[in-house]
Amino acid sequence: EPLLVGDLSARYGGAARGHRSHRTGRDADLLLYALTPDGRPVRSPGFIDFGPDGLARIGAADPASSGADEYVRLDVEREWLLVKSLVRSPDAHVQWLFVARWLEALIIEYARALGEDPELVWVAESVLLQPGDSTAHADHLHLRVACTPDAFLSGCLGGGPYWPWLPAVPQLVPPPDVDLAAAILDDLLPGGAAAGSRVAAPDSAL
Ligand SMILES: [Zn+2]
């Protein structure tokens, strides 16, 4: 059963931060799932970097701490379930799941070891991406959704890929009717001078 992002935010505290990219309403930061070192699920400690070993150090800056390093571990099982739910949901329209490449490696490795459907893993690998123009995203999973087919109609310009497995986008612009365009210009311009090659190129009509 699919997880809902709003639901996740409420239950696990995956709050949106002040990303510039969040202004479009197509982005959400999801905190990473965490375990204690001995494997008990814990609430996410917040935006803290997880390393290639899957560990994140917590409380390092706290002078009142015992001095011993304390760690949480990436809960790769729950993280994969989240990724899987998002990419399989017909309603989520996932365009990207930005995350550090070493965390993607842990997640995909886990999915393969679990024997997940190779096509599903391939889709997950396609959308999981370390962004090139901001931080590596080792402290959260950054969901960016594509414009939905409905949103396209109301002017959503997404940029980036529209993956072939997402719902089909409606045809926004019918092929221009060259004859109609010529007839309109004939009406507008004296002598019908416009009819002809200047309006004959369909791809320049807009
Ligand atoms: Zn982000």
How would a crystallographer describe the biggest sheet? 4 strands, mixed
Shape: elongated
- Summed over residues and divided by their number, the pLDDT gives a mean of 78
Query: Could you say which small molecules are bound to this protein?
Result: zinc ion
Number of strands: 8
User: What is the rounded Rg?
Assistant: 24 Å
Query: Strands of the biggest beta sheet: in what spatial order?
Result: 1-8-6-7
Query: Treating each run of at least 4 consecutive H or I residues as one helix, how many helices?
Result: 6
Summed up, the domain count is: 2
Question: What is the H-and-E element order?
Answer: HEEEEEHEHHEEHH
Share of helix, binned: 25-40%
What structural class results from the helix and strand content? alpha+beta
Low-confidence stretches: 1-18, 193-206
Distance between the termini: 44 Å
Residue share in β-strands: 15-25%
Organism: Sorangium cellulosum
Protein name: Murein endopeptidase
InterPro entries: Zn_M74/Hedgehog-like
